[in-house]
Every structure is written in C-alpha cells, then in structure tokens.
Please model this.
Amino acid sequence: MNTINLPTLDDVARLAGVSTATVSRCLNLPAQVRDSTKLRVEAAIADLGYTPHFGGMALASNRTNTVGAIIPTMESAIFARGLQFLQEELSLSGITLLVATSQYDPEKEAQQIRALLGRGVDGLVLIGQERPEETYEFLKARRVPFVLMWTSAPNSPYCNVGFDNHQAAYDMAMHVIGHGHRHIAMIGGITKGNDRASERIHGVSDAMKQHGLTLQPPYLVEAKYTIEQGKTAARQLLRLDPPPTAIICGNDVQAAGALKAVRDAGLTVPDDVSVVGFDDIDLAEAVEPGLTTVHVPHRRMGREAARLIIKMARDRAPAQNISIDTKIVERSSLRDISGQS
Amino acid sequence: MNTINLPTLDDVARLAGVSTATVSRCLNLPAQVRDSTKLRVEAAIADLGYTPHFGGMALASNRTNTVGAIIPTMESAIFARGLQFLQEELSLSGITLLVATSQYDPEKEAQQIRALLGRGVDGLVLIGQERPEETYEFLKARRVPFVLMWTSAPNSPYCNVGFDNHQAAYDMAMHVIGHGHRHIAMIGGITKGNDRASERIHGVSDAMKQHGLTLQPPYLVEAKYTIEQGKTAARQLLRLDPPPTAIICGNDVQAAGALKAVRDAGLTVPDDVSVVGFDDIDLAEAVEPGLTTVHVPHRRMGREAARLIIKMARDRAPAQNISIDTKIVERSSLRDISGQS
DNA sequence: TTGTACGCGTTATCAG
DNA sequence: CTGATAACGCGTACAA
Model:
C-alpha cells in the first residue's frame, strides 16, 4: 500500500455513467462502442488520469503485451544497439520489452526465464543457441514462443534471427590473410557457454588452416570482453617470438584494449601490428586508428526478431530462421604487408 | 492464452496437501510455518517448477517489489553505468528495476510515469529536476516515492541523489584556465528541458567570467550527445578566428567526436588544441589521447539512490538529499600552455 | 450497443 | 500453526 490508489475501471465507469464492461471495450474493442458513449468514457479517463492496472489486465486476459529478453550482460555496449532496435520495433506494436541479464550463466538464464514468465511475458528473446537441453524442454513444454538472436542456424527447429558467426570470422581471417599476414594471433571471448565466441574462433582457425597456418595457444588466448582484458591479452601476444603481425579480436572492446597495449609497447597500429575487431559498435569508430571490423547487422537483426516474436506470440506463427549477412568495415587498423619479406 | 498455463499456488497446495494460504506463507512469512510442512511445500514447488504469478501478486498485495526508472535515452552509455549500479543494489533487496526512456521529452516522461505506475512500481527514479510542475503535482497527489538522480539540490523538498553539475563544470573550466588557456570554446548538450546541460554550460561560463573571459556563440554551441554531432560542432569551432586553444565538452561522447574533428583538420590534441570531456565513461579511456574529464560518481550515485528509494518505499522514510563530489580525471587531452605567448 | 457476473492467482483477515 | 474466504482490477461470455 505504497501509493494512493490509482483510479480503476470502476471509477471511470461510474464517472461516465456506464458499466465497466463498456469502459473495457472502449479500450480494447473501440469499434463496438457507440461514438457518443465512447466520448463520455474518454473524457472520464482523461479526467481521472486513468491508466489500466497491469496486474489486473494480465490476470484477466492472460496476456501482457510484454516480451522479455535475456542478454548475457549490459556492461559492454555489445547488445545495447540490437536491443534498442528490437525495442523500437516492438513499441510500434504497443509491446513493452523487459530486459534481464544472465551473466553468461545458463543456470541464471533459466531462473530469469521463469521470472519473466511469472511476469507474464508473451514471448522471449534469448541470445545464442548454447544452453542446457532442459531449458529447451521447459520452453517447449510451456509452449513459450521464443527467438534466438545473434546466431544463425538455417536448419534449427528453433527460431534464429542473426548472422553466421563462424562465416563472419572466417571472412575476416581471409581478409587479414589477403593482406599478407601469416603470423596471426587471436584474442577470443570466453568460449564456455558462449557459442558465438567459439564459432568466431573456429572461423578464424578454419580460414588459417586453409592457408596452411595454425591457430593455437599461446597465439590464441581467451579473454573477457573488456578493454582491460583485451589490453592484457594483447600485451602477452606482443611478447611472443615471433610476434604476430596481426591480432584478430573477438570483439571491438577487446580490440580497443589491444590498441592500447600496442601503443604502450611503443609500437604503432597498423604500421607495426594490425588489429581487427568484431561487432562494429560506436567504439570502433571513436578509437584511433578506426577499427577495421565485422559489421554486425544490429538494426535488421533487432527489427526482424521483433517482427517474428510478435507473429509467433500473436498468431502462433511457426518458427522461422532468418540469417543476415555481415560485412567487413574497412577503417585503418589493418595494413597490407604483401609487398614485404 | 499464449503459453501453457504455469502451475499456480493452488497446484502447489494440492500437491503438498495444504491450503493455498499456507503455501503463500511459506513464500512470504516462512517463520510462521512449521518446518515439516514447509519442507513438503518446498518439495512441491520444486517439483512443479512453480514461479509466483506476478500479476496475481500485484493485484492482491498492491506491491510489486519493482522500481521504475525513466532515463532520457539508452543510446549513449551515459546513464548505463549509473543504472547498472542502481540495479545491482536494488536486486540485493530482491527488487526489480524496470527501465523506460523519455527521449528528453517531458510529455513522454509523464506518460511513462503513468505506465510504470500502472505496472505497479513501488517507486520511481527520474533524471534531473527540470520538468513541468504538473508532473510533480501528480507524483505528490499519488504519493509515489521518487528520487531524482544526476543532480544535487541540498534544499530541494524532493529527494536528489547526485552531484553538482554547475560546480563540476566550473571546476573543470578553472582547471583549463589554470593551464593557461584563454581562448576557450564549449560544446554543450541541448539545454532545452535538460538542467544538467544548462548547468554545465553556466558553470563553465561563470568560471570564465571570473577571469574576465566570456563564453558565447559562436564559441558556445549546443549539440546532441553523439560522436557525429560532437565532430560537426568541433569542426565549426576550429574554423573560428581566433580558434580556441581548448574545447570543453558537455560530455565524453561529444569530446570523442571533437577529437576526430581535430585530427581531420590536420591538428593534434593536445599540442594544437586541448579537448576535455565530462562523465568519465569507458570511452574516455579508450580514445587517443585519453580524455581529461570530469569523473561522475556513477557507483555511489546508483547505490545511494537504490538505498534511498527502498527506504522511502518500504518504510515511508522522508526525502533526503545526497550530494556526491566529482573529481577531475587527468589523462592527456589537456595541455598546459602557460609558458607560451 | 450495453450490462451482469464470473474467474484469473495471489494476499490478508479471521476463525479454528 | 493452518484453513476458508473475501478482496484486488480487469476481460469476456452471455444475456438483454
């Protein structure tokens, strides 16, 4: 009993001299109400500053016009943009987005799924595909519509809206190799429970194999997606003999850290070492030199995911897989060394 | 009717062979329940994977353990960190944070306040003090506990948790002047409806006055908090005659843009022009050269705000004002030019 | 076109 | 310590 009671449907009905059913209809099925009464009701609503009580609505209708998203973390900006677009598109349909985080922990993700379902979300948006089978079974048993973002899986029975992390990383590695690099190192994300991180590493590794190169520790190191960890990892790589001529990073934040490590070592990007990123967040452009990186289709991904989850929740449409192409954004952190010995 | 029905209190009660009241008590007042029955109930809960239905709880108890925050925007990272800490501290008390955005529009803010109240939030967190009197009256009439962040106002009747934007900007300007700068320009935020932006500008202006300097267009320009707009604004400033030797920015994002503009003009920071920011978000450190900027106490601000809103909502504690000091973080974008003519 | 009446899942009051 | 039972605000058959 914290705030003074908000006005209820009943209050509006009384003031307008109609029944609560009519008020409810004005809100939900305006076509069924005579214009003159509608006007009276609307006046009453405005007068009282009435807002529907969410709990009541949820209880009575068993739907909330709410979609829940569970992302690994809010700390870095990685997921922020995609979510922003998801949210924009959802709000176009009057749907609210509830965001929760899992800290890259499958257990916590399962908890959050339950909590969001308790809040009555009509659908869920999750990141990636790697999670315990029980979680999928739970979702199936409850018939919760859900879409997985940030991955692509054309043949998956689940709804994926995203891009092919393996392919994108493979392309980037090919690009780097095409610039004459042979001593290539990689700072990847923590792969445990993170399929995007693993796929990116495998993509790079596969491209290198194609050219008779191998990617393995100590030239491959896993680090968290922070500037600090990127910097630490890069510092180690620069001390190796022979040192890499190019460092491929699992994301832009790590790459920004790598840039700092190179500078601290008294070297220059891209003259002494090339550094490339992944994600194309704002940071990639703000940093000096600008990062050559993989552009992730945040906008399309967010929008398509929104449209799909709405279709699935509202019309019970079947799952569908949408794969969006990535592309490499050339800035100035990658140098061509083909001409050199 | 989107998902298969979740298990209810009733299901748990039946399975455990007790009444719904007992199950409810197990959850809310465990002390009042005999251990043996508690065990049975807990087993049933685990067995069914029961999660309380939020709407039902809200309806019956008129409480939600939910706090709403309305921030101007999610696009830049400005508010992200503060919110992160707010959220962490709240979750320590089992409270969920719901975030909405107003796009710097007072009208939209009022709407969101209504929407969040409809969702039954126990309290609100808002940014800044500048908003229509009606909004304050509405909040007062409904007796909603609320705290204003990102500002400080020792004598305000409302609860403020933040820092003195005017003072912080004043200090920064004094700092810049202390480094020998006399031709100082400023890229401020859009002041309309944004008291933080106005105060920062006034703070700088007042410090300059103190030294017989004036801040006015075209040396003062308002721009949105984006890299792009910061860059555009800085480009204009650099074309002025005489050009500024230092550019004070309303926030770090603008400063990052200014850095780019300087570089594009073939000049160097800080040798040719000094640039300083405000906020001390990650970007300030990632950028080259690192930004000398005003460190905003995100952590303490978030935590204190959380504690206060909890006290106000739970114990009906009175409003209280908390002002936290800012400090200047020296990196390398500000140069001392005292020795020069 | 409008009104009546019931039920959604939970908490809280009151008896036992 | 536990059980019945009445709210809570709303949507929606069904009836008028």
Remarks:
- The mean pLDDT of chain A is 93.
- Residues 18-22, 25, 32-34, 37, 55-56, 58-62 of chain A lie near DNA strand C (CB under 10 Å from a C1').
- Chain A touches chain B through 52 residues (CB under 8 Å).
- Residues 110 and 225 of chain A are 23 Å apart (CA to CA).
